[in-house]
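Example record used in the benchmark description.
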Amino acid sequence: MLLSMDAENVEEKEKEEEILNKQSPEELQAEAEKLKNAANEFFKNADYVKAIELYSQAIEKWPRLAAYYGNRSFAYIKTEMFGLALTDATMALQLDRSYIKAYYRRASANMALGKFKLALKDFEAVVKVKPSDKDARAKFNECGKIVKRIAFEKAIAVEEKPVSETIDLESLTIEGDYSGPVLEDGKVTLKFVQDLLDTFRDQKKLHSRFAFQILLQIKDLFKNQPSLVDIDVPKGQKFTICGDIHGQYYDLLNIFKLNGLPSVDNPYLFNGDFVDRGSFSVECIFVLFSFKLLYPDSFYMARGNHESATMNQMYGFEGEVKSKYSSKMADLFTEIFNLLPLCHCINNKILLMHGGLFRDENVTLDDLRKVDRNRQPPESGAMCELLWSDPQMMCGTSDSKRGVGTMFGPDVTKKFLQKNKLDYIVRSHEVKQDGYEVIHDGKCITVFSAPNYCDQMGNKGAFINITGDDLTPKFTSFEAVPHPNVKPMAYANPLFGLF
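Model output (C-alpha cells):
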C-alpha cells in the first residue's frame, strides 16, 4: 500500500512538472486566476458542483496557492463533503500557515463531523492571530461551550432516567380555546392526520399534550422493531419509496398530492433525513410519525445520518423543537431517533438504507438484523456505513469524501447483492439534479425527495414506485413548491452559519 501511495505521489509530481514546463509560471498563474474567478461566480450562484470543478482546474494549473484549496474546501463544505474539505483546508495550511480562512474551513468541517475539540483548536489559532476579530472570538467561545457541555453531559449521564419516563401528560392541560387536531381516545385516526396536515399547512401548532402522546407511542412502536425490517409487497400493489425530506414540509405535502396519501392500499417508505436544514422539520416529523402510528404495517421509516444528536444540534432541528415546544421534547426525539430501523428489505430482493454499503465485503443481511442500533451513530462499522456511505464509479472501496462512512464501487455492490441474493439497493443521502440516479449497472439507485434543497440547489425531488410483481423502479421527478417566508437553517445555532 505504501509503495502504491509513493508511486501515486511520484506520478502527480511528474504531471505537475510536465504542466509547468509547457507554460511559463506567469501564464499558468493567470489562467488559474481566471478559473478561480469563474468558480467564485458559480459559488455565489450556489452551483457548488461546477465551482468545485473549476477550483480543481485552477489547482491543476497552479497548485501552490493556498486560497484555491481554501475556496474549494468551502465548496466541499456546502456539498457536505467534509472529508475532502478537511484535506483541502489542511493542504492550504501546509502552503501558507498564515492563511486564516483555512483554519475556519477546517474548523467548519470538523464541527460538521462532531469533532468539536479539533474545531476548537483551529478557532483558537484564529483568535491568536486576530484577537480583535469579534466573529472569530464568538465562534471560539461558542465552540468552547459545546466542548464543555459535552464533557459535562458525559459526566452526569450514568444515572439519568430516560426522558420518556419523566413526562407527565396529565400536567399538560388543553386550553379551552385550542381548536387544533385532537387524538381520539389517545389514538391517531385518519381524521386527526387530515386535520394535522391542514393545521401545519396553515402554520399552526399541534398541542404539546398530543405531541408528547404521539412521541411516547412511536417510541414504543420503534422499540419493538428490528434493525432490518422485512417488507412484503403483494402482487399488483404499488409501493412508494421517498428519500430525504429535510424539513421541507410543503414539498412533502406535494408528494402526497402527486402520489396520494399513505394508506393500507398506498404504502410508503421514507428513507431517512426527515429533519434538519429545512425549517419545517417539526411539521414533517409529526406527520410522518402520525402516519406510522395510523398504518404501522404500511408506512415505514428508516434512520438517516441526520437523525442524530450532533446533526440536530448543528443543522436546526434541536433549535426548532426548543423554539416550538421545549428542550425536554428535543431530548425525547433523540431517544426515539436511536430506535429507528436502519434498513428495510422488500420481498427479499431490494435492500434500502439511507447511506450505503460496507468496507467489509462479508456483511450479510443477518449481520444487519443483529446490529444494536439504540445509540448515537458510531464512527465506523456497519451501522455507521448504513447511514453515511456513498457509491463511487471506480471499483473497490475508499475513504469517504464526507469523512465518515465508506465509498463503494460497482464491484462491491455486485458482490454484496450476489452474496445476499438481492436484485438491487436503494439509498438516499445525496442531492441529485433530477431527484434520482441509477449507477453500478442499474444495481445502485439514489432517491432524494427535497427539491431545491436548502432553497438554493435548484435540483428536482423524486420518488420511486414499484409493484409487488414488478420490482422495476419507476421514477417521478417534481419541482419545489412555494413555502412561507422562513429560510432554511432558521433555527440553527449561529455558530454554524459557516455551513
